[in-house]
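Archive entry. Fields below.
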Amino acid sequence: MDFAEYFPVFDRLDEAQQERLEKSAILKKIKKGTVMGSGSDDCLGLLLIRSGQLRAFIVSDEGRELTVYRLFDRDMCLFSASCMMNSVQFDISIEAEKDTEAWLIPISVYRDLMDESAVIANHTNEIMSARFTDVMWLMEQVMWKSFDRRLAAFLSEESVIEGSHMLGITHDRIASHLGTAREVVTRMLRYFQGEGIVKLSRGRIDILDEEKLRTLADGE
Amino acid sequence: MDFAEYFPVFDRLDEAQQERLEKSAILKKIKKGTVMGSGSDDCLGLLLIRSGQLRAFIVSDEGRELTVYRLFDRDMCLFSASCMMNSVQFDISIEAEKDTEAWLIPISVYRDLMDESAVIANHTNEIMSARFTDVMWLMEQVMWKSFDRRLAAFLSEESVIEGSHMLGITHDRIASHLGTAREVVTRMLRYFQGEGIVKLSRGRIDILDEEKLRTLADGE
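PREDICTED_STRUCTURE:
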């Protein structure tokens, strides 16, 4: 088990703490499309990603979704254990965007370690700060950036994540990431197509002009 | 000096830690309108508010402002010390909305205490979680709520903070809280006036129908 190698501050814990963590962590397989969190699942436990991809998102009363941040290999998901912290009072849902392998660390174990170890508590703080930074970035995007720039930034990011210029993603799915309606996405993608930036086909978007896309995303 | 009474987890620290905190904290008077943060001031130190009111806000490239959260008596301001945490990578500015008295705790002292004390580290975590909750609430507002509801919620909150139905606030100032242009605020306030919810005069807004304002804010 390579848990020790994946858990960031493992070396800085004492032996008893290391053992408690390692023994309690269970490696789980999470199928692509699985949604966790919101409601009773809130207190699933902490997830430490071995491989795969998760997205954290919020949902409006009308069922519209907005991706708040994404997690990749070696990232730790705090909000699958949000009940652990009294002051976290919002609902966030987690969805596996790819088949994911992650260690589930029980809340009771992690909470105890946080209480006794400044190392774990400060590490948790750093994770929280990183997610806070993600959310503040998103806030600036939704407040001050026009939708064409947000869509261009999203496609550009997707292309980096997938390592490809061919994106197998629906307009509906993009709408769920960006917190808007499918029609809005479709309209803007058609405009991008007209500009020669992308080529659209069913369930697929080909990026033809990456430079133009990046320039648009950067708002230059 | 009543610092001990204001610092939330003071009783749970050992004597040496208590002494270090108490000796290093300096009570400062911050005049209404003073802006701190962004750039070199980022690492001012932590502020523990004795009395007064601060707002934390972000600024767009074009100079438009958005209030992210507000702090009152006994609240602690972490982001006046954001350099303390490596993972905090966004700019936030702090403005005194009222004459404020606050203890300034030097970063070096607080950082040392965080490193050695799980109590302080976890307390910091709780503060961060509370601010995270504020920001997620705001995210939902700006994403899914129409501007009339946001403005109604803001006026209703102001009325509670001030303990009065007469608000001495300009349209420009409201725009800076809500991240929009003055004209947008003026237009919506005139609509509210037409509905008999408020009465507008120079630099002043009187709330005439609090119930209607709340109902609008709640979106019912």
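CURATOR_NOTE: The two ends of chain A are 48 Å apart (CA to CA).
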